[in-house]
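Q: what sequence does this backbone want?
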């Protein structure tokens, strides 16, 4: 009987991307394969993919932006008005959205111009979210994400597949002191372009009145925002200390940048210090991110921690 070595099992996992596929490949039971793979993973064998992943395909990072309609309501006053639900004529919904994948020039834009409501375009965006590993928006944590969830749940939809969120406004507030934190202001400050000029709130009212030119301008504005947002994201991502670890999405043994997945890393002389350890540090030659290695070093003595 042929002996299946650990190397055989790892190679089969790499080839098939699943424990059941590996079991078939090497001719052992699935249960045995799972047990041995679990043991190898616990010993730190990184070559074994945790799930069927696309080999070395980078994670799918979605850049998106939504435009919404205003709430419509009867009001008695212009200041300090407290609007009861009975005064509301129509709640806000999504007028249009634009989205693109990082690394792909195509920008997809959908509007509800010819629809009765925003259900079709909300469902379409959810389908794109299902394919995303990471989604990026400016003020996405407070606005775009929550608005979309409200729309999705209002249509009885289930949550999209798991993804990580990056909010460029959060990075701006957390890591920088820009004069203003609006997308256009930061882009202007960094000299990476500007938003499309438009007539202001009039554009929204014209769209709601069915003005076709206004809808075209709204979508153009939306697309330009997404293009600008991608540039801002690329500029800020190396500074983000809470960025999802992109290297985890690659099913290979390479040491990769945590932000861009690049393999060109250069050791730097300065160490990275935490309260109890010292780590060697490196810089990504592709995006500039500074990282520390997982293995601590230079601990030739007992290190005390703070007592409680
Ligand atoms: Zn990088």
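A:
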């Amino acid at each position: 009987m042929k002996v299946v070595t650990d190397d055989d099992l790892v190679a089969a996992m790499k080839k098939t991307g699943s424990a059941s596929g590996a079991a078939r490949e090497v001719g052992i039971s699935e249960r045995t394969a799972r047990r041995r793979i679990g043991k190898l993973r616990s010993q730190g064998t990184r070559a074994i993919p945790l799930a069927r992943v696309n080999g070395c395909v980078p994670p799918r990072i979605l850049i998106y932006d939504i435009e919404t309609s205003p709430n419509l309501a009867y009001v008695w006053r212009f200041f300090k008005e407290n609007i009861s639900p009975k005064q509301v004529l129509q709640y806000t919904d999504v007028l249009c959205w634009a989205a693109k994948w990082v690394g792909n020039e195509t920008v997809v834009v959908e509007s509800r111009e010819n629809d009765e409501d925003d259900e079709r375009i909300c469902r379409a965006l959810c389908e794109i979210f299902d394919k995303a590993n990471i989604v990026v928006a400016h003020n996405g944590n407070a606005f775009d994400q929550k608005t979309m969830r409200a729309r999705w749940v209002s249509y009885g939809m289930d949550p999209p597949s798991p993804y990580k969120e990056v909010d460029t406004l959060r990075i701006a507030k957390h890591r920088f002191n820009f004069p203003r934190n609006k997308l256009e202001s930061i882009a202007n400050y960094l000299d990476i372009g500007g938003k499309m000029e438009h007539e202001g709130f009039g554009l929204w009212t014209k769209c709601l009145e069915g003005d076709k030119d206004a809808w075209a301008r709204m979508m153009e504005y939306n697309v330009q925002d997404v293009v600008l947002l991608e540039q801002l994201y690329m500029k800020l991502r190396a500074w983000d200390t809470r960025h999802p670890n992109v290297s985890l999405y690659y099913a290979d043994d390479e040491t990769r940048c945590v932000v861009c997945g690049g393999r060109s890393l250069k050791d730097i002389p300065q160490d990275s210090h935490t309260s109890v350890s010292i780590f060697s540090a490196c810089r990504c030659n592709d995006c500039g991110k500074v990282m520390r290695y997982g293995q601590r070093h230079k601990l030739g003595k007992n290190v005390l921690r703070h007592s409680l």
